[in-house]
Amino acid sequence: MLAFAQGDAGAFDRLYARHKGTVFRFIARSLPSKADAEEVFQEVWMKAIEARARYEPRAKFTTWIYAIAHNRLVDLWRKKGLSLVPLDGGDEDGDRAIDPPGDAANEPFAQVSGREAMARFMAAFEKLPPAQREAFVMKEEAEMSIAEIAAATGSNEEAVKSRVRYATAKLREAIDG
User: Fold this and answer.
1) Cβ of 47: how many Cβ atoms within 10 Å?
2) 3-class state of residue 53 by DSSP
3) What is the pLDDT of residue 94?
């Protein structure tokens, strides 16, 4: 980001390429519509571009960009109200982007069991309180540390640990169900 601030457009291209997928998935899993997710995603990167001159590396770039994404989501939630979206990345036709794991994935029993576990997971994920869902996605999807999540969300580390722990327990319980 510092190189971009000094005029290296290629540095921004590298940052964008490295982080666009995880940032978009984080946003998309927090909003009910793809259009809203795409709009927030664009706003996040526009904010990053606008902030290049005043960017100060107080934390990792990942923490900084997720803080922007978090703030944009909060703004939208305040404006529209909070809604939940599936974690599976499926489209309107119900096609799922995540297949059940395992070596026997092609066996009918494994496919049914995997779908049932995924359905239980999805139902539990959608019922998570927003703060737990957000912390869980940042931890698992973006592979952010507890400290990075705390910095990005403006929370303290103990609160983030609790949110991740409670979310993980609820989701494990649903899968084992």
Assistant:
1) 14
2) helix
3) 36
Could you tell me where the DSSP H helices lie in the chain?
2-5, 9-28, 34-50, 61-80, 108-127, 130-140, 146-153, 157-176
Tokens of 99: 């297949």
Q: What is the spatial distance between Cα 7 and Cα 166, in angstroms, rounded to a whole number?
A: 44
Length of the chain: 177
* Rounded CA separation 160/146 (Å): 6
User: How far, CA to CA in Å, does 129 sit from each of 30, 73, 84, 166?
Assistant: 11, 15, 10, 10
Instruction: Kindly list the structural domains of the chain, giving each domain's residue range(s) and its CATH number in brackets, ordered by start.
Output: 1-83 (1.10.1740.10), 97-177 (1.10.10.10)
> What's the whole-number mean pLDDT along residues 170-175?
86
177/175 Cα distance (integer angstroms): 5
Pick the closest to residue 121 from 172, 70, 166, 82 (CA basis): 172
Are the CB atoms for 97 and 129 separated by under 8 Å?
A: no
pTM over cut 0.70: no
- The pLDDT-based confidence of 87 (bands split at 50, 70, 90) is very low
Other beta carbons within 10 Å of 133: 20
**Tokens describing residue 8:** 């290296």
Residue 12 has pLDDT above 80, yes or no: yes
